[in-house]
Amino acid sequence: LVVFENRWEGLWMSCVRQANIRMQCKIYDSLLALGPELQASRALMCVAVALEFLTILLAALGMKCTRSPVESELAKGRLLIAAGILFILAGILVLIPVSWVGNTIIRSFYNPLVPNAQKRELGEALFIGWATA
Fold it and tell me: Angle 73-109/36-62 helices, nearest 10 degrees?
């Protein structure tokens, strides 16, 4: 069996490579045309990235080697604890959409009603998402 077409579907666009010659990517036309797992995944990933950015700033303020408005060792320790908790929360916010999309792919792969041409497999981005969470 020779496959002449590979398809990738991500959070922001879908790509098709035909016979290892050229690849075309297309941004999704409408947010409403996406499934609920992709809509929620987009939102949760954006929130996770924003939370990570704010957490890095908070952790930088709590480090002993930085000068900040907070000079107390106790207050800096509390800032670092809060930053650690927020890092864990951001990891959970990444884990939820990655696992949800993975579950959807696995369920549709083993569903006998889905044609073989429409069955998807787990891609590298899901494994990277699980590893980073």
Answer: 160
Structure tokens at 74: 């106790």
What gap in Å lies between CA 45 and CA 55, rounded to an integer? 15
pTM: 0.80
> Residues 55, 93: contact at Cβ < 8 Å?
no
pLDDT in tens, the chain (133 residues): 566 778 888 888 988 888 778 889 999 888 888 888 889 999 999 999 999 999 999 999 888 888 877 778 888 899 999 999 999 999 999 999 999 989 988 998 898 888 887 788 888 888 998 998 8
